[in-house]
Design goal:
9-stranded mixed sheet; 15 strands; alpha+beta; 6-stranded mixed sheet; 40% strand; 6 helices; 258 residues
């Protein structure tokens, strides 16, 4: 069962599991400072979808002949893969690890190839900002993410240069979460630990190969933590879900085409 944009838009991803096929050990990526570059062959995989009630589980298995490209993430690192133009016809999807503040950068090169990058900054906001301001990144984090993405830029003397760049950041994929929290606050909700309602959110990113372009999609889900005002008609005045409970499918949309 292939993953389609319709499925990604309407069915929540419950988990993304990455496994090694029997006898396959994924080689380590090449290291360039904080950049980890995965060889194209090593990044190839197959994708299996398991329906789970109203959700779906995605399972990535490394496969040198697979039609999916997958890269992980690392603390304070940017993980990258280069998909050669000659191999584009053999790849249908790009998938990366779950995002909660990371940044995806896609570079279309002037030779028709593509470079995908998943960057993570250690310059995190405070616990309060993380809980109540989903789209917020510290200035230091924004600077660090720019530094990381610059590691993937070609040298001026390189024969292949960047033609177009698409970027997906926390401010984009958590925008729906921010709107939901603002709405709850406007309706009199307050947080469990702070004055404003709180959240824990996560985003999955999938890029679909359209042939002449890549269509980059994100899907975001959240847990919300808040107290209702005493005049509320609901019996449950405190919403404080345990891990894995009361996860709301916030939005899934196309971020950009490149």
């Amino acid at each position: 069962m292939p993953l389609t944009d319709l499925m990604f838009r309407t069915t929540r991803v419950a988990s993304l599991g990455v496994q090694n096929a029997i006898g396959v050990v994924r080689p380590h990526p090449a290291v360039n400072g904080d950049q980890r570059t995965h060889a194209f062959t090593h990044a190839r995989a197959t994708l299996a979808i398991t329906p789970n009630g109203g959700t779906m589980n995605l399972s990535i298995v490394p496969d040198v002949n697979g039609d999916v490209v997958y890269i992980p993430w690392g603390l304070g690192e940017i993980h990258s893969v280069h998909i050669p133009q000659a191999e584009l016809a053999n790849i249908s999807l790009f998938v990366t690890a779950q995002m909660q503040g990371c940044q995806l950068v896609v570079n279309k090169m002037d030779d028709g190839s593509y470079k995908f990058h998943h960057g993570n900054s250690l310059q995190s906001p405070t616990a309060q900002d993380s809980a109540t301001r989903p789209t917020f990144q510290t200035p230091a984090a924004l600077t660090d993410l720019t530094r990381l993405s610059d590691l993937g830029r070609p040298l001026v003397a390189d024969p292949v240069q960047i033609q177009l760049t698409g970027t997906l950041s926390k401010a984009d994929y958590f925008a729906g979460v921010q709107r939901r929290l603002d709405q709850k606050f406007a309706n009199g909700r307050t947080g469990i630990n702070y004055a404003r309602p709180e959240h824990v959110s996560f985003t999955y990113v999938v890029a679909f190969n359209l042939g002449a372009q890549w269509s980059v999609w994100y899907q975001t889900s959240s847990q919300f933590f808040y107290r209702r005002p005493t005049k509320a008609i609901f019996r449950k005045k405190v919403v404080d879900p345990s891990a894995g409970q009361n996860i709301e499918f916030i939005e899934a949309r196309e971020a950009f085409r490149i």
